User: Which sequence fits this backbone?
């Protein structure tokens, strides 16, 4: 008995795969899901999505969204998903500098800057941990 | 009867135009298929979000969010116009521009300030010609709009709305109804009014007790903005698909017209050539007859 994991972004269904266990970054901490998990809906944060299948693990970066678990089907709705290998440290550090240099003259601009900075920082964190 | 040479020249140029329109038709067809695939791929996300909202509503959480509330104030309104960057697509851009002008007039009567956001070169030039200049304009959206490009626009508008700097947001675009029917429409996106799936009587999944993490309220806080972003993104996708269809249809009829024109010109050309030959023969016979006498 395995979990069926579906990862969906607003643009497309990124991938569908079977896994023994799924670890997702929730809004306030990590959460592991194994087979026969109770029905659950959760809010995701930025971080690493780890899929374990028969001893091999596969990691992806996800950015916000939701997770729904029902009848051994894990649906992950996220704004962005990407392989961790595709993250580039130099590029991200450049992005972080750009993000920090964004204007912050009003509340909206500040919020937007914070969002971008957070997203880039969590990508860097994911990269450094892997 | 016109000069045979001139007719032949014209026929050649029509043939060249036909080649161009035919190629454009083929390109539009390919692009349409791609855009359509993307639009279809995007529906999966929408469906699942709807499911989440349905489940939230079923769990007894009251779906409330600043984005859903109706505003009494009528100070600022924003109108987003989605047009193409290129022409040669029949009535596609014209229809959206027409809708925009009508709706802009109505908004201007009700609201003190009407902001205009225009995407697409055609819309920008067309509307400025009619005296409506864009407060902000985008030209980087092509036949494959990306969510990452739409998200910042959605986020800024959302923040303005929550901060009370925006009371209403409308989008004028071409809605894709079916591959043979698209219509230019104006849709109100903010206030959202109602999130799809917020209908406890509706279908969706069976009565499962979901566990909400961290809490139903926290999820709701995120679901509402997400469904707004998705709605706006869908408008962009619809507009992109409709543009390619419009171009495909326009170029198909242009090619057919060129075919008809070529046939007509060929006939006139042949007649002109024939009459020229007849004329020449008559001259020769006339000359021979003259020599005989």
Assistant:
């Amino acid at each position: 008995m395995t979990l069926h994991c579906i990862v969906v972004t607003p643009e497309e269904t990124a991938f569908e795969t079977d896994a023994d266990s799924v670890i997702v970054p929730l809004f306030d901490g990590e959460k592991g899901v194994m087979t026969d998990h109770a029905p659950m809906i959760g809010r995701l944060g930025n971080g690493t999505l780890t899929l374990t299948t028969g001893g091999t693990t596969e990691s992806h970066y996800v950015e916000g969204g939701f997770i729904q678990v029902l009848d051994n089907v894990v649906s992950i709705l996220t704004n962005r998903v990407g392989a961790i290998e595709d993250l580039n440290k130099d590029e991200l550090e450049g992005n972080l500098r750009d993000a920090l240099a964004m204007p912050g003259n009003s509340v909206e601009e500040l919020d937007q800057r914070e969002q971008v900075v957070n997203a880039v920082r969590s990508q860097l964190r994911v990269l450094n941990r892997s | 009867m016109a000069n045979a040479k001139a007719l032949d020249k014209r026929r050649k140029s029509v043939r060249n135009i036909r080649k161009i329109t035919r190629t454009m038709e083929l390109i539009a067809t390919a692009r349409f298929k791609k855009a359509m695939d993307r639009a279809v791929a995007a529906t999966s996300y929408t469906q699942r979000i709807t499911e989440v909202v349905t489940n939230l509503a079923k769990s007894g959480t009251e779906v409330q969010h600043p984005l859903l509330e109706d505003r009494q104030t009528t100070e600022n309104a924003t109108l987003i116009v989605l047009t193409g960057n290129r022409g040669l697509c029949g009535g596609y851009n014209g229809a959206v521009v027409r809708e925009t002008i009508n709706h802009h007039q109505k908004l201007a009567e009700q609201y003190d300030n009407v902001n205009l956001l225009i995407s697409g070169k055609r819309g920008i030039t067309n509307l400025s010609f009619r005296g409506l200049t864009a407060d902000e304009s985008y030209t980087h959206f092509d036949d494959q709009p990306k969510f990452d490009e739409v998200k910042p626009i959605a986020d800024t508008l959302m923040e303005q709305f929550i901060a009370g700097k925006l009371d209403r947001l409308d989008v004028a675009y071409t809605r894709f109804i079916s591959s043979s029917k698209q219509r230019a429409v104006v849709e109100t996106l903010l206030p959202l009014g109602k999130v799809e799936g917020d209908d406890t009587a509706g279908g969706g999944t069976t009565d499962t007790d979901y566990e909400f993490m961290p809490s139903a309220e926290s999820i709701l806080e995120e679901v509402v903005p997400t469904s707004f972003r998705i709605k706006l993104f869908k408008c962009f996708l619809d507009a992109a698909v409709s543009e390619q269809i419009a171009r495909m249809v326009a170029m198909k009829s242009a090619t057919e017209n060129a075919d008809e024109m070529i046939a007509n010109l060929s006939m006139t050309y042949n007649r002109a050539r024939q009459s020229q030959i007849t004329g020449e023969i008559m001259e020769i016979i006339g000359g021979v007859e003259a020599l005989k006498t």
Observations:
- The longest strand of chain A covers residues 56-70.
- The two ends of chain A are 28 Å apart (CA to CA).
- The first helix of chain A runs from residue 89 to 100.
